[in-house]
UniProtKB/TrEMBL annotation:
Reactions listed under catalytic activity: NAD(+) + H2O = ADP-D-ribose + nicotinamide + H(+)
Molecular function per GO: NAD+ nucleosidase activity, cyclic ADP-ribose generating
Protein name (database record): ADP-ribosyl cyclase/cyclic ADP-ribose hydrolase
EC category name: hydrolase
Domain TIR: 25-157
EC numbers, comma separated: 3.2.2.6
UniProt-listed GO biological process terms: signal transduction
Taxonomic path: Eukaryota, Viridiplantae, Streptophyta, Embryophyta, Tracheophyta
Domain of life: Eukaryota
Keywords: Hydrolase, NAD
Amino acid sequence: MNTSSSALATAAAGDSSSSRRSNRWKYEVFLSFRGEETRTRLTDHLLIALRKAGIDTFIDYKLKKGENIQRELDREIEGSRIAVVVFSKSYAESRWCLRELSKIMREGKVVCPIFYDVDPSQVSNQSGSFGEAFQKHEKDEDPNEVEQWRRDLMSCADLSGRNLKTTADGREGVFIQNVVGDIIALTKTRDLQTSQSNTLLEYLPPTQMIQLSYSSKSRTSTQDPEREDNLSLAMPTILTLKDHSSWMVASNKNQLIIMIFNNE
């Protein structure tokens, strides 16, 4: 997995092992999967491997009987730092799974898609078993919700992920080790970014808004005095980081902008 491209949706972070989570996150990982197909196979094995690695993971059997399932699932998604979505052949048959996915995408989570006996193109284009499932949804479900499911599947499938068929010759044990390694790398990356940003934010007035953006190269823009969001770089502050990238701090009216530049 290319962790930089899979982390298109952002989240805050904490330290390592059981203390890795910041106060914001209840879980490191939320597992979204179709239970009938993968619960006792890949998903269960992945859950065990994640916990052995010290990654606190939510799985739906933690829900108590009698709870409002949709509301509780939404709450657990909100309280999780990373979402691992296990796409299997029957994933799209479940309204619960599709609603989980929509919530995950709406919350802007770091998403790690896993393709289990299904091709990413089938997920993105809703073809094959996914197409068959949507034929039924179009008859039975709200058309606006169905359209949102389609968009979310396309967005998630386009992220860099792991495909069991093309990873480690389909060996599930090696595949799971790779997925766990990806997630550990993601948490460490988010931890580093948060540590760096927190160091800077300690010196900023709490009333100022912080916007973080990433660019592979610095860019110049023509200032438009009539635009309220015009960025002034007259007196930028450059801080070089250990990973050879830089922070550029500039202000525009009441807003503080922090940009990260890759110096490679």
